[in-house]
Fold:
Amino acid sequence: MYLDVRSDWLAYVDDIPRALVAANAVASLEALEQSPRHLHQKAQLLFTVRGVINCEVDDAVWIVPPQCAVWIPGGLPHSAFGSGEVECISLFIDPSEAPNLPTQCCTITVSSFLRHLLMRANTLPELYDVDGPDGRIVSVIFDELAAAPVEDLRLPIPSDKRLKKLTDLLIAAPADHATVAEWASRIALSERSLSRLLAEEVGMSFGRWRRQLHVILALRRLSAGQSVQTVAMDLGYESASSFVTMFRKMVGKPPSRYMAERLGPVSRDHGER
Structure:
């Protein structure tokens, strides 16, 4: 089953005369199948309740850990799939009705308040009363989305065939300690040419790009329940502390705190009512 809603439903979602359209279900799936590349004129918000969502666009892969969402602008071709067991909410938003929302693909941090609003939006009738309580909820959601922090949980994907091969090699062997020159030789490039191409295509140095890949891979593993120590070893770090240092520099928080902030609110909220 696809992470996106049914293709026949997507065929008319753009014609529903409402600023927000919900898929009216929380997907709870194991081994989510990658959806075919597709687009719709309404923007899409995919919120991860549990697990990890991966969203692919032409030039990047976005990683969406628990309690985060990916914003997909209207008209942008994309595909999506889950890592492991995933629960998610899918909402479609008319860009013309929400001009303050992002115009580019991005990941958004979802607060506890916004999460409750998204859960409520997921129960809205297809043709909700825009002038009633449901319409006011939608307006508050748009305000909260516009103010929500944006995170750069993105791995830029180069278009050059040699760099795409390098991407596959790095993903297949993230613990490989080869030098930049050695990686370059594996794709028939000089170290200087590799650095130049990366700067042109992804705007990053090799080291920064590889660290971004490690953050993406780490979030997938941590969300699946692996320990920081295990993830550090799998990614080739000499110690858990060296991995934590890298993660903090890239994300702004150590991995344990980062994951606790995303997993903790769910269990606390269960006891609030």
